[in-house]
Amino acid sequence: MYRVRPLGVVFPRHAEDVATTVRLCHQAGVAVLPRGAGTSHCGQTVGEAVVLDFSKHMNRILALDPERGLARVQPGVVQDELNLAAGAHGLFFAPDTSTSNRATLGGMIGNNSCGSRSARYGMTIDHVEGLEVVLSDGTPASLGELSAAELAARSTSDTLEGRIHRRLPEIVDSARPGLAEQTQQFWRRAGGYRLDRLAEGPFDLAKFVVGAEGTLVTVTEALVRLTPKPKATVMVVGHFDSTAACIAGTDAAMRTGAAGIEMVDNFILDLARRSPQHEHLFGALEGDPRALMFAEFYGDTVAEAGAVADGLVAAWRTDGHGYATRLAATDAELAPLRALRKSGLGLLMAAGDSTERSVAFVEDTAVPPEHLAEYTTRFAEILDHHGLRAGFYGHASAGCLHVRPFMDLTRPDQVATMREVAEEVCDLALSYGGVNSSEHGDGYARSEFNRKIFGDAVYEAMREVKALFDPDGIMNPGKIVDAPPMTENLREPTIPVAAPLDTHFDFTRYGGMRGEAERCQRIGACRKPDTSGGVMCPSFMATRDEEHSTRGRANALVLALSEPDPKAALGGDRLNEVLDLCLECKACQHECPMSVDMATLKSEALAHHHAQHGTDLRTRIFGATRRLYRLGAMAAPLTNALAHPKPVRALMQKFAGIDSRRPLPGFRRDDLLRWNRSRPATPTARGVAPGERGDVVFLADSFTSHTEPDIGRAAIRLLEHAGWRVRVESRVCCARPQISKGLLPQAKKVAGKLVAELAPEAERGVRIVGCEPSCVSTLCDEHPQLLGDSRVAGSASLVEDLLLEALEDGTLAPSPGPEKVLFHGHCHQKAVLGTTSSARLLEHLSEVDVLDAGCCGMAGSFGFETEHYELSMRIGGQRLFPAIEGSADAAVAATGVSCRQQVAHGTGRHAKHPVELLHDAVFG
Fold first, then answer.
1. Stretch 746-773: mean pLDDT, rounded?
2. Every domain of the chain and the residues it spans
3. What is the mean pLDDT of the chain?
4. pLDDT tens digit string along 880-901?
5. C-alpha torsion 881→886→891→895, nearest 10
6. CATH architecture designation of domain 232-347
7. N or C: which end of the chain has fewer CB within 10 A?
8. For the chain, what is the total number of helices (H) and then of strands (E)?
9. What CATH number was assigned to the domain covering residues 495-613?
């Protein structure tokens, strides 16, 4: 929402680095801004300052004490990583943020974060036991609860720390009358300074600075309290005909003691119904709900939790709330419901277009739950009055609504409307004894309202606190007190109108290439660590560097595409450097809530770079994969003998940048094309006539054709055995190599030839199948964007899709395969095609463990390139290699040629394609 260029960025490695940086900034009068993952919504982590990014290096769990239920952590530790370590002891850090897979503990402390179960577990402030900090003059200090004697002892020094301990109690005393007037203010508060906590006692500066947004101190270490994990969970999902009816069911849920009560309105549900990533989640629901309420109950056993949950079901039935309920207790039952519950933010952010976006400026107001129904109605009336649409979801048990109106902040009138709505909603929340911020803090968005919220006396006391801790005003200035208007520093108005730019890919859906890059809403889902699962973003997982996240690349592209000459900017060396470590895995297209397609954006940028700077030898080599592989197979085994000796590999590394440590593929003279010209007819399954299932085109990719022909043979034989008539298409490449390397003029020609070849068959209903996911996904994904021609895309699929049909109708009757198979899906398959058919095919043969092991790190040519080799191996070594090495007795299956190469190189194991395992089980 906000954009301010920092003065610089420091990546501290230890507390001494932090102290030195703050001391130097203090001496120079330069602002300092501590930052975690940068996932805040309100502008807390942007400013004209030296940014201290703790996420890259200061991200260690220093000590874990299960006996005492404590953890000592650095500020860059991600919440999920702490919970993973604590979970081994039955513990967790209880404030359950929706961004737990990237939110850092330092950021949570700065923001006083919480989540869906705050009614039971409270906020971050309730779980902080002590802090190591650096004060605004660069001196270190230890903060925690002090007795009267300890406070007196610390007050004697004439240092900044001494003055704070001496003067702060006086400020609290002067603010007591004003604080007394606020005794009815709602407990779930994330804004302002916590003078109320000090007034209540004990004197605990560690808790006092929680929620201060880095405006008072910089945290370098935290001692946090861990909580026992629930042993059993039962969720009740209430189905309602309206949002009002849903909210009316809150009281009954609270009376039964639910740990968390969430609601989602029809606006969100409609978005989910239309989302390919979410529509399958509705299988867990009954009918067509217009609102849902999710209530979680805990107990030592499922029976214990279920008994309380049954009480809610009975209460709703008695009171006439909802038309249906669904109970869930197992992980399989809970997962889709939790995914649907958590989908609100991503769906809202993805629902915007090239001009209008959901904006987080009234995003987390909260009122006592008994007023929530009336408050929601009046909130909606405010939005209707201003002609705004928005979805409502949030934490009903805590009276917190998440509301993001859709607005176009490039328009001055919409900026003015935003301010009017913010003022009206703030007044509305206060009228019900609520708060303006219950979860996401003040930042630039809400700080200017703090005088109204807290009153003159308390606000002036907060200003005194700021002056006491930070007399020179260098600590994240402009937040909480003495803030600029919320309409200053907005991101959208500062970005110039994009200049016209001709592109190879069609980006018109989002208003051009910059519009595609601007789909990134900077929520940082691409910053999750490797321990959090999924694929996105492999380069960030390995480097922990913002520059090498999808968000970092998207920001760089937006800046480049905002230049007066965007074409020249796309050719810039710095942008090329930022994009360099993108593996083009397409995980962001699938896992990012906004489906940012960084692979396509990188390919387009590379094309402009080549146009300005020429194309290097290595790029031309990889772009000519089809031709070189065909020649390599024709000359095999001579090709293999010439290419593998060490002197040859050394020359290849020196002149072409192809790393000598990476094994080259071996070419097969008996390739698929040679075999296909004279292949014998495959016997069909019993009772099946040849060709009775119809025609199929088998896409013979470069790898299946020339280096791994056994895979292609297996696929063709299985198809024919099941009754399909197979034509092998081997004349034209899919253009995947050219697309990956940004050779888009050539790619367009090659892809156009293939589509022209296949379109007549696709139009008469012929299925087009292949074994290599990257090639098949290219037909489905890139070809329509590159050519404006979708005739083939809808007919293309993996060969496993067809073979699964034959397995499930009994045509294929395989013998049992290996006892257990580890299955690793290709990144493009996960993003575009899905891994379901491959996994289900294998399940007809064996027990299957579908690995959640991220990207293998190979990424086609990426792993061959000298400057990328070590990163490639590091990515594979994070999850994939250990998963395979830990199951030595299991067979390994991988659909991608790059994945199989990486597995062989990284583990010494031979991974087979699923169709090879099926072929062996069918034919013996």
1. 97
2. 8-227, 232-347, 352-440, 495-613, 623-807, 815-923
3. 94
4. 999 999 999 999 999 999 999 9
5. -30
6. 2-Layer Sandwich (3.30)
7. C
8. 44, 26
9. 1.10.1060
